[in-house]
Amino acid sequence: MSTSNGNDNVVTKSNWKIHWRMTESAGLMIYLADYRGHRVLWAAELPYVTIDHQSQDLDIEDGGNVGHGPFWVPLGHRTQAGPVSCTDFRGGFELSVDFDAGLYQYTQIWRFHEDGRMAPWLTIHGGGLHDAHTYHPHWRFDFDVDGAGHDAVEHFDDGRWTRVSEEGWFPYTGEADDGGFVWRQVDFGSGASVSIRPHHWEDAELFAIQHRTNDAASSPHSAAGAQTFPAAYVGNAPLDGHDVALWYVAHVHYDTAFPFTAGPWIRVSGF
C-alpha cells in the first residue's frame, strides 16, 4: 500500500492504531499511537540528521569552498524521493519512505510489531564528500504512557534501574538489563512502560527534557548559546509526574560496510 504526500493517515492493525504524516523538516512523523487501546505515544519525529566531516583538506573538483560540517539537510516534503509505503510482515507492519538530501540518501522506517515492539529506524546509504564523516540522527519522542502525566524516567545504571529525578544526559555505556534495555518511561498508575535499547553496534545517548513548546523540534534555529541540540535544552527541571520529551541520538561513523541502519528498539509493556 502506498499513500500520497501531505495527507494525515491512520493505520489500524497488529494491535496498533497509529496516525502519520510527512512533515516539512522532521521526516515521517508518527503521532497519536495506541497499543491495545492504550495511548503510548503523542508524537515521534526525526528533526535532525547532522553530518560531521573530520577532513580538513577537501579536494573539490569545481574549486568551490565547502564547509567541514556539521551539515544538515532537512528530511521532509522537499527531499522526499518517493511515496510513503505501508508493508505487512509476519507479526506486524512497517511504514517506509526514501529521502534524497543532497549528497546523502536515507530510508526512514517505522516498524510496529503485534507483541508491542516498535522500531524507529533510519537506513543511511552512505556517500558524501569523503569517507571521514559521522552521521548523527536525532529522534524526538513524546511518550504518553496511558496519559501525558504521572510518568517517571529511569536509566539502567550500576546493575539496576535508577529513577531520573530531573533533566539530564544519559549516554549508553554498554550496561543494560537482561533484555538489552537502557532507558524506560513508566506510568505511575498502570505500571505500564516503554523501554528503549540501542541498535547493535551503535553508539547512542538519551536526553530527558521536560516537555516545552519551544524546544528544538518546534524551533530548530533557536538553541541557547553554542550547544548542539538537544543539549542546549537540558536544565534542572523536574521530570517525575511531568510530560517528558526523550531525545535519542545515534552516532554512526561512515565506512565501507554501509548501508547501515541506525535507531533504537522500543518495547511497550504492561498493556
Which overall shape is indicated by the principal axes computed on the Cα atoms? globular
Question: Class, according to the CATH hierarchy?
Answer: Mainly Beta
Assembly state of the chains shown: single chain
Helix content: under 10%
Task: Return the CATH topology.
Answer: Beta-galactosidase, Chain A, domain 5
Strand content: over 45%
For the sheet with most strands, the description reads:
11 strands, antiparallel
* Number of helical stretches of at least 4 residues: 0
Could you give the order of the helices and strands?
Answer: EEEEEEEEEEEEEEEEEEEE
Number of separate domains: 1
Instruction: Measure the end-to-end span.
Output: 29 Å
Spans of at least 5 consecutive residues with low confidence = 1-6, 60-65, 216-227
What integer is the average pLDDT? 85
- Based on secondary structure, the structural category is mainly beta
Number of extended strands: 20
What is the C-alpha radius of gyration, as a whole number of Å? 18 Å
Look at the structure and name the CATH superfamily: Copper amine oxidase, catalytic domain
By CATH, the architecture is named Distorted Sandwich
